[in-house]
Design brief:
Chain lengths: 195, 472
């Protein structure tokens, strides 16, 4: 699968012509930052992936919309979005899967996870499915939560400090996504964006 | 497997016209003019002999209804002709205590629906509403002695005005939405339930709502107060006569669950496919209390209904279990709202929907966590089955989380019946129909098992029968 780094703007639209992973980057995550991606599947049999990892610190804000629009049969799309929110940050994500009538045998999955690491955070998640074809598999999952205390306890019992433990858990949280990126130089870019 | 065959299989309400769709020619004792004016609102209030504050409440709500625009999201509401509806239709002069006293024509309706029979067998109390008014009501004596109140809302307003001054319109104010305003202006009938402190009512209380007249608007108003440490469950069923013109049903249900109490509200909504069902249901759940909405939507032309729990007390728990079935021409836009306001509150939403024969189901939900709700937890699960290629399914959940310690999960899937599952069951000697029926029963089982036995059997039987009958 080809890997493509996408610098998003307010209205990014991409037609998927061959199997591709799209790794999303943002020019800025200052207050009011607003981005959207519409991935359109018009060609039969192509697969796509939308991968995005972000970390927001005090005063930062991200408004992100991703859309996978399936118009042709036999296409597939995996969307995976992972975000970490530190004190005083805001995230607003809408992830939409649209499967139109001709797009039978489509497989679409959306997975969004937000890890809350600070106080005074705001998070809005809106995963949406609009399905008009019947022979499809479409699903989404969304979670918002803090670092699992059991995991922190386990690591601390191995002589790590609380901060070190948390850092390792956060790294693991993102690595499961970054490991999916097949191009190593793009993976490096994605990794540096969350540091 | 041939798709054509699958298409015919599940059609829950194919015998609706003969089973529920009949109508009786009952002559109402009073019928307001068609359409809605301030005059009609005054007339309703006057006929009911209401206190002045209620008339003022109605008039204020009427003004809000006129001012609020029709919502443009969800289903298509543009075809409702508010001037072509009867807002008030009084079928008889009073609420009766025994079925023998109910006017024959009306009694016949409820006999055919099996209500008196069910009352004898397993219910703690019954209210039956015919068009605008409650025409029959009864409550077992031992419950009356314990102080349980189960009355038609109009009757309760006369006998227990203090409850109304304190609670009426407080959970759902008229300016909440256009249809809550409409209900507040022209409400009539509905149930009032009060369960005293510590009283456990083990058998369900039931209300049955019936639309018999053509172009009818039914606007029942239900107020339920479960006092500290009490437990009760309430079931409502609804059906309508078969007409080609549309009717409007717009109810408001307010539930107050006091500290430590538990209340379960079950709805079996089976309106005919000419009814717009636009209902606002909300519960205020206090400390250590528990509220469950069990919501089954099988009928109606368009349903927009999102039962909600406002978790205002510590450790409060809210739950919504819902099944929606949409067939030809139907749109079920149903879901749930959970608003976490207090610490350690938890909520669960489980929604199962089936769309067939060109029907459309939508799940629309909200989970909100405010900064005061430390350690809130919520889990949402929505599954949809699409049975043929004319049908459609949507999922619109929203999660607004403004408190870092919250733990929120949402999951949704949409699929058709898996070929592998069918193949597996058929390899064990089941016919295709039996296999499909088993899979659909399994799909809705988590909710059906929570239904009172009689309803669960009915729902399962409907699905099995319809599947058997059609493949031949």
């Amino acid at each position: 699968m080809k890997t493509q780094l996408v610098m998003l703007n307010e209205n990014t639209e991409i037609k998927v012509t061959e199997d591709t992973q799209f790794v999303l980057q943002f020019p800025s995550v200052a207050q009011g930052a607003k981005y959207s991606l519409n991935l359109i599947f018009e060609k039969q049999g192509v697969s796509g992936e939308i991968l995005c990892a972000y970390a927001l610190t005090a005063g930062q804000e991200l408004n992100l919309t991703t859309l996978s629009t399936h118009k042709a049969p036999n296409t597939s799309c995996l969307t995976q979005i992972k975000g970490a929110l530190y004190t005083g940050s805001k995230s607003n994500y809408t992830g939409k899967i649209i499967i139109e009538k001709p797009a039978q045998q489509t497989t679409a999955f959306l997975d969004q996870a937000v890890l809350v690491l600070g106080e005074d955070t705001n998070n809005i998640s809106q995963p949406i499915l609009e399905i008009e074809a019947d022979d499809v598999k479409a699903s989404h999952g969304s979670t918002t939560g803090r670092v699992n205390e059991d995991q922190v306890y386990y690591l601390m019992s191995r002589c790590l400090s609380r901060d070190e433990s948390q850092a390792i858990i956060v790294e693991g949280f993102f690595e499961s996504l970054i490991n999916k990126i097949e191009d190593t130089s793009v993976a490096a870019v994605a990794r540096s964006a969350i540091r | 497997m041939p798709r054509k065959k699958m298409k015919q299989k599940i059609d829950i309400n194919s015998n609706y016209a003969s089973k529920y769709g009949f109508n009786v020619t009952s002559t109402p004792v009073f019928k307001a003019q068609k359409g809605l004016t301030e005059e009609i609102v005054r007339q309703i209030s006057q006929m009911k002999n209401e206190p002045k504050w209620m008339l003022d409440f109605r008039l204020r709500a009427y003004k809000i209804f006129r001012e609020k625009p029709t919502p443009t999201w969800g289903g298509d509401l543009s075809k409702i002709d508010y001037d072509d509806i009867y807002y008030y239709l009084k079928p008889s002069n009073q609420e009766e205590k025994t079925w023998a006293d109910v006017p024959d024509k009306i009694k016949e309706t409820f006999d055919r629906l099996g209500i008196p029979q069910a009352e004898k067998e397993y219910l703690a109390g019954v209210k039956a509403q015919f068009d605008s008014e409650v025409i029959y009501g009864n409550l077992r004596e031992e419950l009356q002695e314990q102080g349980v109140i189960f009355l038609g809302t109009d009757d309760a307003l006369k006998k227990f005005p203090h409850f109304f001054e304190e609670y009426f319109g407080k959970v759902i104010p008229p300016n909440d939405n256009k249809f809550a305003a409409l209900n507040s202006a022209v409400w009539s009938g509905g149930s009032f339930v009060y369960i005293p402190k510590g009283v456990h009512v083990t058998r369900p209380l039931q209300a049955y709502f019936r639309i018999n007249a053509q172009n009818m608007g039914q606007f029942e108003r239900t107020l339920i107060i479960a006092d500290e440490g009490s437990y009760a469950s309430y079931i409502e069923g609804c059906t309508a006569s078969t007409y080609s013109t549309n009717s409007l049903h717009s109810a408001v249900v307010e539930v107050i669950v006091k500290p430590g109490a538990r209340f379960r509200y079950t709805t079996i909504q089976n309106w005919y496919t000419n009814v717009y069902n636009l209902v606002t249901k909300r519960a205020k759940v206090e400390k250590d209390a528990n509220m469950e909405w069990l919501d089954c939507n099988l009928g109606s032309l368009l349903t927009m209904k999102f039962p909600s729990c406002y978790l205002v007390g510590e450790n409060a728990h809210g739950e919504v279990l819902s099944i929606a079935y949409a067939s030809k021409g139907q749109h079920q836009d149903a879901g749930a709202k959970m608003v976490h306001i207090a610490p350690n509150t938890t909520s669960t939403i489980i929604s199962k929907s089936i769309s067939a024969h060109g029907g459309r189901t939508s799940y629309r939900g909200l989970v909100a966590v405010t900064p005061s709700a430390k350690n809130a937890k919520s889990r949402v699960e929505c599954d949809a089955l699409i049975l043929d290629h004319d049908s459609r399914s949507d999922t619109y959940p929203t999660m607004k989380i403004n408190e870092p310690s919250a733990n929120i999960e949402h999951e949704a899937t949409v699929s058709k019946i898996g070929e592998e599952k069918l193949f597996y069951l058929m390899s064990r000697g089941l016919t295709e129909t039996e296999a499909m029926s088993l899979i659909v029963s399994g799909f809705i089982e988590p909710i059906v098992k929570e239904l009172p036995l009689e309803y669960a059997l009915e729902l399962n039987r409907l699905i099995e029968l319809e599947m058997e009958g059609s493949v031949g």
